[in-house]
Amino acid sequence: MSTIIVFGATGFAGGNIARELADRGHRVIGVSRSITPAVVTSIDSAEEGSPAENAIEARPGSVFDESFVRTLVEEEQPTAIVIALRFDPASGGNLGERFTGLLALAEEHSLRVGVIGGAGSLLVTEGGPRFVDTMELPEEWKGEVLAAADALEVLRADNSGADWFFVSPAAGFGHPNPGERTGTYRLGGDVLLSDDAGVSYVSGADLAVAIADEIEQPAHHRTRFTVAY
């Protein structure tokens, strides 16, 4: 059983990821600025006697608190941390700027860092424009999409040697359309994936399946991949 820290465990992506990892028997530490044991109980859907029962541990804290993160990593010795947070600078800080320190810590402790981004930085076609550059978005949304794209470039420019991966879910991924767990998905690289009907989508639960699979069987190192049906 591995110890895995999930930042943003009260959110849509983070909650699904924490639950999937716990269901697989991992020890999961869910971190959020507002997390409580009661919130974890609502995240954890495990039935009595299942591997995930009481497996998600609540830790109030912020990824922007360098001292908190270092202490947590040093005390708990996780094999991986997953960052599933909004990239909106107005929500508490520039997440991309925080990656340099996180990656140095990750290299120091030989742990993987998984970052859940968005579909905006994916290319519409091979060699084509980014998805975000083809959309008409309100300015308040576009800022967050561009911040996620910038964060990916921070990771790509990193020279620490830390083992990171960045995941861009399908374009239709999100809380308004949560979907169900099928246990199936497709993987891609930097190009947006769509099904035969032109729909780019993956459920919250199946994104979590892909993340858990990647953590258990590492296949992507210092690169971005996308997940869709």
Structural description of this entry:
There is one protein chain. This protein is α/β, with parallel strands linked by helices and 229 residues long. Helices cover 34% and strands 17% of the residues. It has helices spanning 12-23, 37-43, 66-76, 95-109, 139-157, 204-216; strands at 3-7, 27-32, 56-60, 80-83, 112-116, 164-169, 186-188, 223-228. The chain has an eight-stranded mixed β-sheet, sandwiched between helices. Helix 4 (95-109) links the parallel strand 4 (80-83) and strand 5 (112-116). Helix 4 runs parallel beside helix 5. The two termini are 29 Å apart. 41% of the residues are buried.
Give the helix/strand layout:
Blueprint: E1 3-7, H1 12-23, E2 27-32, H2 37-43, E3 56-60, H3 66-76, E4 80-83, H4 95-109, E5 112-116, H5 139-157, E6 164-169, E7 186-188, H6 204-216, E8 223-228
Helix pairs in contact: 1-6, 3-4, 4-5
Q: What name goes with the CATH superfamily?
A: NAD(P)-binding Rossmann-like Domain
Computed structural class: alpha/beta
Query: How many strands appear in the DSSP assignment?
Result: 8
Per DSSP, what share of the residues sits in E-state strands of 2 or more residues? 15-25%
Domain NAD-dependent epimerase/dehydratase: 4-84
Pfam family, one: Epimerase
Protein name: NAD-dependent epimerase/dehydratase domain-containing protein
GO molecular function: oxidoreductase activity, acting on the CH-NH group of donors, NAD or NADP as acceptor
